[in-house]
Amino acid sequence: MMTRGVGMLAAAVLVGLGALHAYWAAGGRWATGVSVPQRHDRADEHADDHVAFVPGPVATLIVAALLFAAALVMLGRIGMWGTWMPRWVFVLGAWTLVAVFAGRVVGDLRLFGIFKRVKGTPFAWWDTRFYTPLSAMLALAALIAAINGP
Q: Helices (DSSP H) in 26-56: which residue ranges?
């Protein structure tokens, strides 16, 4: 029963994140100032931080679709969706989510994750306090579903 609750909660979070990315892809601006990693301009310590990249609407929409798909994988793994599909699809999908979200926790060793070197930016603050812990919880939820699903 715990596995089902964890899977449903994780799926709800993934749907919410997917909706947020769809909102951004459609031109929404809320929270965009802290949604992309920033890097310091090493030449001028007093310069404003610069975003590391500018995601376009297509890339953002792809991320939204992947987050929605991840929610379906979680729901499929706990037996609430896709019972007509082979079980191994959801088992493999859940283990893939474990790897993806655990990888997000570790990060790129520079701009995001627990080993990031760039600190002191608005994104880094949110990454430390919200994005990385949320990724860890999603990795744990996917692990619970991967191990204990039907």
A: none
Determine the average pLDDT of the residues in 115-122.
89
User: Percentage of the chain surpassing pLDDT 70?
Assistant: 93
> What tokens were used for 27?
């031109």
**CA 62/CA 22 separation, integer angstroms:** 9
Beta bridge partners of 51: 38
* Cβ–Cβ < 8 Å for 72, 85: no
Query: For residue 76, which of 60, 62, 95 has the smallest C-alpha distance?
Result: 95
Q: Give me 100's structure tokens.
A: 């993806």
pLDDT at position 40: 67
- Look-up: residue for tokens 């082979």? 86
149: left (phi over 0), alpha (psi -120 to 50) or beta: beta
Q: Please give the single-letter amino acid code of residue 21.
A: H
3-state secondary structure at position 31? coil
**What's the predicted TM-score (pTM) here?**
0.90
Helix axes 132-148, 2-25, angle to 10 degrees: 140
